[in-house]
Specification:
By secondary structure, this protein is an alpha+beta fold. The protein has eleven helices and 28 strands. Helix 2 packs antiparallel against helix 3. The chain is flat, with a radius of gyration of 39 Å.
Amino acid sequence: MKTKICFLILSDFMILKLCQLVTTLQSSLQNKIHDEITVTCIILLSLIFNKSPTMQVLLLATVLFCVEDFVRAEPKQKCTERCDVSTCPSPSCPMGYVPDRCNCCLVCAQGEGEPCGRKDDLPCGDGLDCKHPAGKRLAKGFCQCKLVHKVCGSDGNTYGNVCQLKAQSRKALQQGLPAINSVQKGPCKINQNKGTSHPTSPRYKFNFIADVVEKIAPAVVHIELFLRHPLFGRNVPLSSGSGFVMSETGLIVTNAHVVSSTTPMSGHQQLKVQMHSGDIYEATIKDIDKKSDIATIKVNSLKKLSVLLLGHSADLRPGEFVVAIGSPFALQNTVTTGIVSTAQRDGKELGIRDSDMGYVQTDAIINYGNSGGPLVNLDGEVIGINTLKVAAGISFAIPSDRITRFLNESMDKQSKEVRSLKKRFIGIRMLTITSALVEELKQQNPDFPEVTSGIYVHEVVPHSPAQKGGIRDGDIIVKLNGRPLLTTADLQGALTEETTLLLEVRRGNDDLLFNIQPDVIMQ
C-alpha cells in the first residue's frame, strides 16, 4: 500500500512536470526544432497510459530526463542561402576559430570543459579532444586537453596543461603582448638562490644574440646550383650558398656567384632553395649583377614566407655588434657573431679592380657557404650580404644601401620591359596633313575644310577604341590633349603613355572633342 501511494505521489509530480514540458514540446514542434526528439516523446506519452502504474512512473522518468535538455536548448541556427561575411562578428577566441554551422563565419571553438560530440556542438579547440563517458559514445562529451601534464610558460607561470598555455598566449597576442611559449614540461622551477623563475634569469634577459637569431632564422635559406648532365641524366652540384627572403611572395636576395657558374659544362642548370622549415623549391633567376655580385631569385610558394627588412648601412658605426647567418658546408643556420671593424672599406683596397663599391668589414666568421646570407644588426635588419673572407677575423659584406640601389634599378628595368611588351592602339589608319594631300582631297571633295596641319583619318578599324569613341572616316585630328598635332609620329608617341587621349577633330565646319581610351595588347 505504501509503495502504491509513493508511486501515485511521484507520478502526480511527474505529470505536473510533464505538462510544462508538453507545452514546450508543442512550441518546439511548431518551430520545427528538435523534431526527432519531439516525435519520440509523443510516442512515449501515448504508451504511458497503456501501462501499469509502475511502468508509467518509469516511462515518465525517461521522458523527463531524456527530453528536458533538448527542449531547453536554443533553436537551431537557420542558414541563409548566401553567406554575407560583412555580418560576421569578430570574436576573440582563446581556443582558436572554427567555421559556424552554416560554414559562413568564424566562431569560437569549444574550450576545455565545454560540451561536445552532439549533433549541433561545435568542434573542440586546438589541442583538445572530445571525451565521452566510458561506454556511452553517443552521450554528451566534454572537451579535454590531449596532454594533461603541467607546463612552464615563457612568462614564468605554470599552466595546468598545454591547452591552457595556448589559450593564454592567444589572449596575449590579441592584446598586443608577446606570445607565450612552452619552455619546459612540468612546473616552472624556482631558482633557490635568486628566488626567481628562469625565464627572467640573466641567461634569458641578456642573450640578445639568441633573440636576433630567433627573429631572422626563418627568413634565411640554403641555395644549391646543379647542372643536369646531358649524358648521365643526374644532377652535378656546381655551387651552394645562402640567401634571405625579401618578400612574402618569394623574392630572395643572394650573391651572384652563388646562382651562376663559370664552369664550361653543357647541360641544364637548376636552382634549388631549402627553407628554414625544410621545404624545398625550384627557383628562377630574376636579375643578376655580376659586377656588384648581387642577384635576386624567385620561388613560388603557397605559404606566406617570413621576410627580412633592409637597414641603412650608412648609419653603421665601427664597434657595432653584428650577426652573420648562413649555410657553410651545407650546414644550415650556422650563426657567427662579431663587430663592425670598418663601415666603409673601398673595394680597390681589397684588390678588386674597377670596383665602385665600399664593403662592410667585420670580424664575424664568413666561411664558404655563408656567401649570400644576411649580416644583420641587433634590430634584426639586414645591413649587408656576406660575401668575402680574406683571413681569420677579416670578412666583408656588400652594404645594404647597395642592395637597395640594385633592387630599385631592377624594378625600373622590369617595368620598362613590361611596358615594351605592351602595345597601345586606338584603331585608325592615318596620314599627316600636307599641302599636297589637302589639294588632292579637295579635288575629291570640294567641301574639304581649310587646314594646314593635323592628321587625316583615312580609315577607322571596326570595333576599335576610335570607332567606339566616335571617330569617323574622313575626320581631321587637329589637336591632341590641347596641343596642335603636326604629324602621325606625335600621336604614336602619345600612345606610349598610359593616359586617355583628348582629341580635337575637325569634321566639316565643326570642331568636336573626343575622349579615346586606347586598348592594350601584349606583343
